[in-house]
Amino acid sequence: MNQPVDVSKSLPDANGLFGSFGGRFVAETLMPLILELQDEYTIAKNDPEFQRQLAYFQGDYVGRPSPLYFAERLTEYFGGASIYLKREELNHTGAHKINNCIGQVLLAKQMGKKRIIAETGAGMHGVATATVAARFGLPCVIYMGATDIERQQPNVFRMKLLGAEVIPVTSGTGTLKDAMNEALRDWVTNVDDTFYIIGTVAGPHPYPAMVRDFQAVIGHETRAQMLEKKGRLPDSLVACIGGGSNAMGMFHPFLDDLDVKMIGVEAGGKGVKSGLHAASLNGGTPGVLHGNRTYLLQNEDGQIIDAHSISAGLDYPGIGPEHAWLHEQGRVEYVSATDDEALEAFQVCCRQEGIIPALETAHALAEVAKRAPGLPREHLMVVNLSGRGDKDMMSVAHHLGEKFGVKQL
Amino acid sequence: MTHTSRLEHCFAALKQQNRPALVSYLTAGDPDAETSRRLLHGLPKAGVDIIELGMPFSDPMADGPAIQKAALRALNNGQTQAKTLEMVRRFREEDSTTPIVLMGYYNPIYCYGVERFLTDAAKAGVDGLIVVDLPPEHDEELCQPAAQHNIDFIRLATPTTDAKRLPKVLANASGFIYYVSVAGVTGGSAPTPERLEGAVAGLREHTELPIAVGFGIRTAEQAATIGRFSDAVVVGSALVDCIENANTPDEAVERVHGLVSELAESVRACREVNEPQVC
Ligand SMILES: Cc1ncc(COP(=O)(O)O)c(C=O)c1O
Which residues carry this modification: N6-(pyridoxal phosphate)lysine (chain A) (predicted)? Predict the structure, then answer.
């Protein structure tokens, strides 16, 4: 095997740019903080003690490595490619989000920060943040859109049990982008003691690169596990995309393996043509929001348009800048799955594998349903099973309850 | 370029009078196009020296609730970048001296097209830009192109801007320096004058540009205190609140211009106590 070139060393450049995407489009008040974070992260990245602690918590606390599971029944059901599930839903707190939170909280500790804030959409990142804040004894404030609080009640309760304060955000449409605005407002006000744990590969530099690096454990493990199981690399990787962290974590270690095809699945909502979707690459244009240049859902005057998705975790009008760059480079193929397609795939996964996936993850499975049947059994397809669906019971009952004789949960 | 800009004229004249400038902030198109036009056109008469006109943005992440709501009111009533520039153009037909600085976020400018925006802004009579989310690290995006159009790029310095960073912040600054008095969003807590005076004095050691102070200034009394040591005081959220609290457009205009008059009177008198008596 050739050692893969470490793409993380080349991009982003010193200004945090992936081609023309990324950057540091933030208020001056935040600039010194972001530069300090960048310096501290660079130190941590090369500090064996930091890496040792990270590995320790990833193992004994998060439960890594997560299995790479051959989904035999799903493979037979679709009748084509061999489907493997990277079981991120088995991580502590039930999603990939904690991989990043552990990394960032260790950094917060190293920097002597006294207070943690975060934004959350589906609540998985909020729960993961509240969890690590509890573990490290730091007070924690989570900003969550009022709309999302409604549809993700179980996670709101979990965060509160973990000792976090959950602040409902009513500005804008009360979803993830507004929660992020509010978290940025908190940060700019509490500059001295607060660490902002961004939950995806977005935001100002160094966040997109830093979150990617913490999530890259997914791809590194997948590579080693597939080599061990099959003696070769997978043929394709499929992951859902909200901001893009589970996808980037899976894809990044394979970027230089040009034979490995990568497919990112955006939330198509009611269909990209309907205008009611969250597919920034398939239905958006380049712009600047939340500290970086990337593809956004916006009108021609640069006003951000609300995203729509059945899944709160994908309901974001932007996407991480590195994805925008990979899209323009043609290295990764970006497609979309509608609400209905995701709901269908959600049920198939429950029935065939006994695994209840998150609605976010169901979008990746919907793409598998389209793609796998046409491929030969030798084709090794890995799906990032980014999270489990317990949190989605209320939403799913709302859409499918009738079918199961359940009116309301 | 050796031409004297409206901003330079304005600050030179006020230096002669030994008083600070009163800078008002309103969001263009708030609460609606016509009321916003009346508000704008009446500002100089009510005593404003420099006008900051906000370009509304859907996601104003450096603004507090007052200006967030103002942006939403404007956008819901159909305000666009083109309409904001048109407002400036019409204002210039009546007033060729009062400097106008457009303030906002980068995305609406980026989507309009930087060159096209600067060309149209210069033609309309815009004097300067304050773009919150363009730190010096991104000067090539807008700051440097703006200079080609003789549009000043007004830089924000903040309580977190330390000595190491300050030269970078000042490097391509022009027009004036906007000192953000508190770390936080607009409409937040009031600054403490003692700390501010030290901060402004510190800035003066590094720049010849006039220094404006803003964020958290609401009352005539605060404006007077801060105006004693700064070259300009900026009042925004307090004016925007007048619009929010008014029941009719007429009342909004009356309240805003009323508060401006009070502020104007106080900045005009604020340094008199220290003046030697001339009989
Ligand atoms: C299970 C799960 N998958 C995916 C996502 C989307 O985020 P990202 O694209 O950053 O992985 C979320 C976000 O909440 C999530 O909870």
Answer: 97
ipTM higher than 0.90? yes
What one-character DSSP code corresponds to residue A164? Answer: P
CA of A303 to the centre of ligand 1 (A): 25
A208: helix, strand or coil: helix
At B198-242, the pLDDT tens digits run 999 999 999 999 999 999 999 999 999 999 999 999 999 999 999
Q: Which tens digit of pLDDT belongs to each residue from A316-335?
A: 999 999 999 999 999 999 99
Which atom, in ligand 1's list, is nearest to the CA of A121?
14
Asked whether residue A394 carries a pLDDT value surpassing 90, the answer given is no
Å from CA of A80 to ligand 1 middle: 27
State the helix-helix crossing angle for B33-46 and B249-269, rounded to 10 degrees: 20
Catalytic residue among B49, B63, B139, B152: B63
The residues of A that are catalytic are 97, 119, 386
**Side-chain-side CA neighbours of residue A287 (13 Å):** 30
Atom of ligand 1 nearest to the CA of A391: 16
Q: Which CATH code of 3.40.50.970, 3.30.70.20, 3.90.10.10, 3.40.50.1100 fits the domain covering A17-59+97-211?
A: 3.40.50.1100
Report which of B268, B219, B186 is spatially closest to residue B19, judged by C-alpha positions.
B268
Work out the burial of residue B208: count CB atoms within 10 Å of its CB; fewer than 13 is exposed, 13-18 middle, 19 or more buried.
Answer: exposed
